Amino acid sequence: MTATECFLLPAPLTRISTPLHLDVKSLQADGAFEGYASLFDREDLGHDVVQPGAFRDSLAGRDASAIKMLFQHNPAEPIGVWDEIREDARGLYVRGRLMTAVAKAREVLALMRAGALDGLSIGFKAVKAKRDPRSGIRRIEKADLWEISVVTFPMLPGARVSQVKHRAFAASVPSERDLERWLTRDAGLTRTEARAVLRDGLKGLTALRDAGRAFDNDAVLAARFRAAATMMSNAT
Known about the structure:
alpha+beta, nine-stranded mixed β-sheet
């Protein structure tokens, strides 16, 4: 559930946890990694949906290093720095470094490598937002971004680090469960969306979208599939 926190930062801040799609190759020995801290047009468990362009003004006014990298939203535990934060067609792309001279950052790096810690969560102040009284969904149109945390429990069910250590489908024909895992973990679909694809193909996603239960358009969906396929083919 979305929470309001009072940190040593302007309040109220909202936390939204979102997928960090990260190839194990992107997690470097020096603590460098990259991924997505927010995905546009996807509802989280707190019924918030971040709209494209929501962070544009906030990012234009400050360097990436000014956005804090925290552990579990704790302002007393900074663990690294962000080198790049930008919006693209998919969401909020981030690239940063864990400071391995800090004990907590070394712990986080070890846990990320093991797959035990694999979520990202953004802390921001909603500047402009609208809530649909019928569905309860709040659409964030403009947000002031303050921090991005590495977290244990992400808000989106599919918010997990993707650590591909081998060619996933090279050894044998994938099972339905393997395909569902790929669709949710690497392509970023929800479990409902993945099962709709496995059952009815893209027509299943169209039906969900018509029912208001899926948000990505065809172009964004195709880009996500291509990125996930590239991640798999490049894995060793």
